[in-house]
Amino acid sequence: QVQLVESGGGLVQAGGSLRLSCAVSGRTFGNYAVAWFRQAPGKERDFVASISWSGTKTYYADSVKGRFAISRDNAKNTVYLQMNSLKPEDTAVYYCAANFYDLVVPATYDYAYWGQGTQVTVSS
Hints:
By secondary structure, this protein is an all-beta fold. 0% of the residues lie in helices and 52% in strands. The chain contains no helices and eleven strands. The protein has strands spanning 2-7, 10-13, 18-26, 33-39, 45-51, 58-60, 68-73, 78-83, 92-99, 113-114, 118-123. Strands 2, 4, 5, 6, 9, 10 and 11 form a seven-stranded mixed β-sheet that branches. The chain has a four-stranded antiparallel β-sheet with strand order 1-3-8-7, with no helix packed on it. Strand 7 (68-73) and strand 8 (78-83) form a beta hairpin. It is globular, with a radius of gyration of 13 Å. The protein starts with a strand and ends with a strand.
């Protein structure tokens, strides 16, 4: 089994920054891509960003391009999401997910392993 645990969420004012972490553990042999998704109350879970095993391929939703940056440290089995210039509409529960196809794809069904989520709240 593969476990993912998110951390780093919290309350921040608009314009501020947060860095989320996703720690991956368990049977992590093989290369895996990791993505961040988010879900606001009453809305669907939306893709935010993804990164390949090597870190050379990244993919971002248009809504976060230029503001968010995804990165990873494979020695620590951890993926990060640096979020800058936060807006109230970024408020959501943020989830990380992994797939062992090593594909930086935006669809939820392409990810078999999920964390429990971390709340991010941006006040205006």
